[in-house]
Design brief:
This protein has about 140 residues and is α+β, with helices and mostly antiparallel strands. Helices cover about 30% and strands about 25% of the residues. α1 crosses α4.
Length: about 140
């Protein structure tokens, strides 16, 4: 049940290795299982399902889905006038294809970053596909 929201997200191919800043899913799972009070509170909330949620396989699947489906954005002036670099997973955005010349860009509300909008980057006709840049468009 706890993983239901992630069912719609595309994951990496079954034979792909997922690394999280040099850490393996096995290491992340081990750290989470050893973390208190996190583990005991998770078990209290989910019961036996917590063990499956903290398995190496589940951590690898979740990490792969998050890496492939997260959109980065900046929340303006979130910390003492400095922007907060953030990432989120949005069901609609995770269905969009990548383009090096995207037809839309992600925009967050200036005051809190709580509202996310898609802004067109070029004139579009009815039926044109909406595409996003999965990485910064100015990357070489």
């Amino acid at each position: 049940f706890a993983l239901k929201p992630f069912d719609r997200l595309q994951g990496p191919p079954g034979d792909a290795q997922v690394l999280l800043h040099g850490t393996t899913p096995a290491e992340v799972a081990q750290e989470l299982r050893a973390s208190e009070p996190f583990q005991s509170r998770l078990h209290k909330a989910l019961g036996e399902e917590a063990d499956a949620l903290l398995s190496e396989e589940t951590i690898a699947q979740l990490a792969g889905k998050l890496v492939l489906n997260a959109a980065s954005f900046s929340v303006p002036e979130a910390r003492q006038g400095l922007p907060l670099q953030s990432a989120g997973v949005y069901v609609l955005l995770s269905t969009m294809n990548h383009s090096c010349a995207p037809s839309v860009r992600l925009d967050t509300s200036a005051d809190s970053g709580a509202e996310v909008s898609l802004i067109t980057t070029m004139p579009l006709q009815v039926g044109d596909r909406l595409t996003l840049a999965y990485v910064a468009p100015d990357w070489p």
